[in-house]
Structure formats: C-alpha cells, structure tokens
Amino acid sequence: MTLAAIKLGKKNRKNIFLNKVKKLLPEGGNLNACLTCGACASGCPATGLGDMDPRKFLRMAALGMDEEIIKSDWPWMCTMCQRCVYVCPMQIDIPQLIFNARTLRPRDERPKGIRDSCDMALRNESTSAMGTSPQDFEFVVQDVLEEYQEAQPEFADMQAPIDKKGAQFFLNQNSREPVTEPDEMVPLWKILHLAGVDWTYGSRGWAGENYCMFLADNDSWETVTSQTVGQANKLKSKTFLNTE
Amino acid sequence: MVKSVVGEENFIDMQPNRSNNYCCGGGGGFLQSGFKEQRLEYGKMKDSQIKDTGADYCIAGCHNCHAQIHELSEHYGGNYPVVHLWTLICLSLGILGPNEREYLGDDLKEVNVFHPETAF
Ligand code: SF4
Ligand code: SF4
After folding, report:
1. What is the pLDDT of residue A8?
2. At CB < 8 Å, which residues of chain B contact A?
3. Which of A13-27, A92-106, A214-228 has the lowest mean pLDDT?
4. Burial class, A29, CB count within 10 angstroms (exposed 0-12 / middle 13-18 / buried 19+)
5. Based on the domain organization, do A94 and A161 belong to the same domain?
6. Global pTM?
7. Domain region containing A149
8. I need a labelling partner for A227 at 20 to 30 A (CA). Which of A21, A59, A129, A202 fits?
C-alpha cells in the first residue's frame, strides 16, 4: 500500500458503492467497523494479486474510490472463501462487498469464460455450464448404468434414477462427469446403492455448477437456481443434495 | 469418514485447518475467469500446505477444488495424486473397477481391482 495510491482530494464523493452494499446486508455487513488491523489481508491467498488485498479494498470503498474499484480485476481473484470473515475481529463481510463489486461492470465486460459458462447454462433446461441438453444427459446416464450393470453383476440392481417421483434425495451432478469422464459418476452411484439411499437426478436442472452466480448476474443466477429447485419440488424430493 | 477409509494413522490434516484453512483458488469462478497466472499464484499457499503434510494423496471435496489442486500438483512439481472421496470409499470397499481409477497414482492403480477383466 503506497501513499500515492490513495488520493483523498475529491470532497464530494458519497461512498455510493459502499452505501449500496451496506443496504443489502444484514447489519450493513459491519462494513463501517473496520479497525484496519490487517488480519484479513495477512491470511488472504489473494493478497498481493493485482496490487490489492481485502483491507485495502475495503478502505478504497470507504474512501469512495468507486472508479478505481470498477477498474480493478481483483474482485475476480477473490474466491469469496470467507476466511477473512472468520478471522476479522469485527466480522466484516468483505466477500459480500467484493461480490457486489463484480456487478459494477456491465455484463459484457466481465470475464468471458465465466460469462460463456453462464450463457451455456441459460441455453436449455439442464442449467449445465457445458450446454449439455437434458436428452444427452439422460442418454449418458442410462448408457453408463447399463454397461456397469452388465460388467459388474454384483451391481445388476443398481439404479441411477432420473425424475423419480418422491425420492428422498434430489442429487445434482457436475457437468464434467457426464460430458468428459462418465465412469467417474459410477463410484457415487455404487455408494448410494449399497447404502440403500432413495435418490434421483432431475432431467431438468441436474447440473450442479452455477456460473451465473459467479458472474454476479443475479437474474440469471435466480433463473438457474429456480430451475433446479423447481425440479426437486416437482418431484417432491425432501432433501436437495448439492454435490458442488 | 476419511479416517475410516484410509485408517486413522494415515490421515494427516493440513495446517492451519477448519475455518483457518486456505481456499485452493478454484472457487468463485476463478477457474473460468481467464486469470490463470494469478489463480496459480493464489494456489501456492494450498500447494505448500499439502506438501508440508508429507501425505501421498490429497482428497478434494468438490470438482472445482479437484481441478485446481490437480493443476497445482503438476504446476508446482509436487505431483501428488488428487482424488475424489468416492474413489477411496469404493477402493476401500473393494468395489472400484478398472475404469474408475483415473486419478489414483501408480501405487494404487492395480490394487484390489474389482472385475479387472472389464478394463478398457
Ligand atoms: S480483519 Fe476486519 S477489522 Fe481487521 S483490517 Fe480486515 S476488515 Fe478491518
Ligand atoms: S473471501 Fe476473498 S478477500 Fe476474503 S480471504 Fe477469501 S479470497 Fe481473500
């Protein structure tokens, strides 16, 4: 942190960004309570990336340096791991502040990879960041299941249900397995089978990842989450199991 | 759970652990953000933590973590295998087939294979 980096010259800044976030959070996220002790920064793995750290970021917001915050790529390098909240003596919700900083840029100026993954999820009802259709998912699951029922006769009765009504657990699935390494789905099926668990995938909203959330595209995030929760509710599953 | 699978004496926790542990750097969308160099830099702490345990394997809890730690293992030369918990559970139960071993290291690839004749 250099003195030159922080300019206090502009008198009429109203801390617009910080105030906006404070309104969103319970207790204002305690964002006004910082003691500048540095506990957050000293244990944050993102400290130093892009010449930034969580304490500095919070100070910049407190000083109304909104323009500098918009320019910084650092909000995309914080993983929102929450470690800083755990160690902060004032329980300041820095990750929420940073998440909201992601919304400051127009959607098409946010990182392309994250945006593309979100757009893929919006393409069909799977909500898969890889764009896999419900039909393709059902085909792969069925195909792999039959292969294993045959190859490993001890598991001839194993099931990998899709849209099973009233199943106790609704399980989602990261897209990477059905798409690129389908055999990796099987060990979990086996464990559920041996444990006698009553579970199901959904044909809709089966994909576990949610890049719209990471993109801070809140409307799309809600669309994706509603899709998967809606499917679980439609099937009357009692418990939603998020494998992500 | 891990202890019951690998044996109490084979489980080595990272330090610091629990809420003081460090994120691997795969979360929050970092994997898809395009900031690869920064992501690997972020993960350096996690890689050192893993190496410091001296453990042969690292178990990852989710996909993002698995992808990131796997990359850290290669990038920083530790070359420790990174596995999903379900793989070790099935291995310990003797029901892990030959095609479900993608992430096991060479030391365990051939151990207790379920239906080895179905390898492809
Ligand atoms: S740990 Fe909390 S109080 Fe200390 S500098 Fe960070 S935000 Fe401020
Ligand atoms: S939530 Fe972000 S700022 Fe806080 S410790 Fe994690 S990476 Fe650092």
Report:
1. 58
2. 19-23, 25-30, 32-35, 38-39, 41-46, 62-64, 67, 84, 86-87, 89-90, 93, 95-97, 99-100, 102, 114-115, 118
3. A13-27
4. buried
5. no
6. 0.93
7. 113-241
8. A21
